[in-house]
Amino acid sequence: MTLTSLDHVQLAAPPGSEPALRAYYVDVLGMTEVPKPPVLAARGGCWFEAGEVRLHLGIEPDFRPSRKAHPGLRVTGIEAYARRLTAHGATVTWDDNLPGHDRFYSEDPVGNRLEFLEDQPG
After folding, report:
1. CA gap 59, 43 in Å, rounded
2. Which residues have a Cβ under 8 Å from the Cβ of 26 and sit 6 or more positions away?
3. N- or C-end of the chain: fewer Cβ atoms within 10 A?
4. What is the DSSP letter of 85?
5. Residue 15 lies in a domain
6. Do residues 112 and 67 make contact, with C-beta atoms less than 8 angstroms apart?
7. Cβ neighbours, 10 Å, residue 104
8. Residues with Cβ < 8 Å from 45, sequence gap 6 or more?
């Protein structure tokens, strides 16, 4: 018996935020929205994928954004990715405290913290 992989990460979002989530995760991050099973779709929220990355945004009535907890999302071309987020109005905060990596933090439109990182060459 062993763990084999991470299937998805779920973040919370406030009721009615689906349009803003779609605009951010699809248009800004470049992910694809995937349909939720009908029984789960009735609860609201959105599911997104890009390659092996799966993020589920679930609706939480008394939502409070995650300020510390976050998914770490590996990217290629991190400088260009940061410029893309900035061009769409997202805040990018660089952090050089993880040896061997370039990384920054940002937030989705409802305030959930997201980490973006790329291995440094060499």
Report:
1. 7
2. 32, 33, 48
3. N
4. H
5. yes
6. no
7. 21
8. 13, 18, 36, 56, 57, 58, 59
Q: What pLDDT digit, counting tens, does each position of 59-90 carry?
A: 999 999 988 999 999 999 999 999 999 999 99
The three-point CA angle 51-41-89 to 5° equals 55
Domain membership of residue 106 as a residue range: 9-60+70-119
107 forms bridges with which residues in the sheet?
113
Q: Which of 76, 77, 69 is nearest to 105 (CA)?
A: 69
Q: Which helix (H) or strand (E) holds 108?
A: none
At residue 2, the pLDDT reads 83
In a domain? residue 18: yes
Number of domains into which the chain is organized:
1
- Does position 5 have pLDDT exceeding 90, yes or no? no
How many Cα atoms sit within 13 Å of 4 on the Cβ side? 2
Can you name the residues that pair with 118 across neighbouring β-strands? 102
**For position 3, what pLDDT does the model report?**
81
